[in-house]
Amino acid sequence: MIAHSDSERALKSQRMVLELLQSDMPEPDYTLKNELDRWSKFVDLGKPRFQSRTEPPADLSHPAIAVNLAACIQCTRCVRACRDVQNNDVIGYAYRGARALPVFDLDDPMGDSSCVACGECVQACPTGTLMPSNGMGLIKPDKQVEPVCLYCGVGCLLTYHIKDNKILHVEGRDGPSNHNRLCVKGRYGYDYVHHKGRLTKPLIRRDDAPKDKVGIDAVDPNDPYTLFREATGEEALDKAAGGLRKIRDQHGSSALAGFGCAKGSNEEAYLFQKLVRVGFGTNNVDHCTRLCHSTSVAALMEMIGSGAVSNQVEDVANSEVMIVISANPTENHPVAATFIKNAAHTPGKTLIVMDPKGNPLVRHGHYYLQFKADSDIAVLNAMMQTIIEEGLTDNEFIATRTTGFDELKEHLKDYMPEKIAPICGIPAETIREVARMYAKAKASIIFWGMGISQHVHGTDSARGDLAVSHLGPDRPPRHGPASAARPEQRARGLGFRPDPDVLPRLRKC
């Protein structure tokens, strides 16, 4: 079959469709990038001949998103963005014929709906039906800035649209961690930048308000100048550097220390530790992630030879079975969770959620193992016992790439699922079924979170996740976000012997 898209009949049909759509367009514009106008101009379409239908009123109930259904052309991009990309299932398509239109939940006002304000629908809308509130989409920006979002560790790429040095609105960029997707914080959490209480100039303590005479409690919260005065950036840097240098010279390097922040980028963390080690002359430098995920880092170093996770979240697209244990990515890392939800709704893939308390990801899972609090190690050991007992292990991989398997096998004899079921609250058959499914998959991936790492036995829990990932056949170990350790507990887990060609590079890093 040969189709001609530029024939006279095809072009006439295109113009007719565009003219019918334009006849329902309102007089005011809601966006500077209206795709309908662009295509109408492309085919040299003039003013439409048809009478406009009665359009629904605007919905301005949401604080961040304006809904102007008068500009809607029923393309359903917003529906697909909400359902297929973000998997939030808020936007649907209701009614019939000329009354058909997108709705939120049960045709509720958007501000009253279950919308989480990810803004994916706004980014997908071609006509301005869904736009940033307060008409921000109609202001032409002076410039665009492309930063990395620092709200969490996903690493989403952003585009700031800026006018007069103020952020108008934010769009997602196609980065490896987000592929244009954002969450409510990344897309709308920028108003603090312009908050009136935010300091925009460096302040230095006034000479007539010394610390030993005037305490910080004397500061008027509405007037920081009771204790401080404005200064230039150069003066403030000289003051800070001079004070730190004075402490170092008078009391030695050990009198100084630095504590980094997880909101900084890898480059910023590198520069910070370089400042402490070289500038201060001390190794007293630490980072908050070492505390919250120290258990993960220790277990990863012990069992795979590297303190970093082996895969990014997007790799769920290449996995048949996904386990999320003691983590709530839907609320803590919403963009990363979208990839997990996308995979869960893909035929042939299975999502297993293991958590003592429910979380929104359970709705998308095929299995939910709600084990009793503090019994995660028992469940993981029972899964490993099942994999070994039923001969589902990759014996060649274990023989050539791991250590301590015989000790692990001996340790697991007391962890029969039937014996563990009363302890963890999960039926023995369910434990066996999940273990079989994970072990038999061609590619599997495990994600864990703070529910694993924030325990006195967090390292053992992380070891359990890693050990399960080593046992299955025909695949390299895959593991995800994170949890640290006591060397004497090593016999409980399964060590991983890195590739000899890779090990020198890991040590160098």
Task: Give a short overview.
With 509 residues, the protein is α/β, with parallel strands linked by helices. The protein is 36% helix and 13% strand. Strand 10 (258-260), helix 7 (266-280) and strand 11 form a beta-alpha-beta unit.
Secondary-structure topology with pairs:
Blueprint: H1 8-23, H2 35-42, E1 65-67, H3 77-85, E2 91-94, E3 101-104, H4 120-124, E4 130-132, E5 143-145, E6 158-163, E7 166-172, H5 184-188, E8 203-205, E9 228-230, H6 233-251, E10 258-260, H7 266-280, E11 285-287, H8 288-292, H9 294-304, E12 321-325, H10 329-332, H11 334-344, E13 350-354, E14 367-369, H12 376-389, H13 395-401, E15 402-403, H14 405-411, H15 417-424, H16 428-440, E16 444-448, H17 450-453, H18 458-471, E17 495-496, H19 503-508
Helix pairs in contact: 1-2, 9-18, 12-15, 12-16, 12-18, 15-16
Walk me through this protein's architecture.
- By secondary structure, the protein is an alpha/beta fold.
- It has four domains: 11-136, Alpha-Beta Plaits, CATH 3.30.70.20; 139-195, ADC-like domains (N-terminal domain of TfIIb, Single Sheet); 206-247, no CATH class; 294-508, Dimethylsulfoxide Reductase, domain 2.
- It has helices at 8-23, 35-42, 77-85, 120-124, 184-188, 233-251, 266-280, 288-292, 294-304, 329-332, 334-344, 376-389, 395-401, 405-411, 417-424, 428-440, 450-453, 458-471, 503-508; strands at residues 65-67, 91-94, 101-104, 130-132, 143-145, 158-163, 166-172, 203-205, 228-230, 258-260, 285-287, 321-325, 350-354, 367-369, 402-403, 444-448, 495-496.
- Strands 14-13-12-16 form a four-stranded parallel beta sheet. Strands 5-6-7 form a three-stranded antiparallel beta sheet. The protein has a two-stranded antiparallel sheet with strand order 1-4.
- The longest helix is centred in the middle third of the chain and has 19 residues, at 233-251.
- The protein is flat, with a radius of gyration of 29 Å.
- The termini are far apart.
- Mean pLDDT is 85; it is low at 473-509.
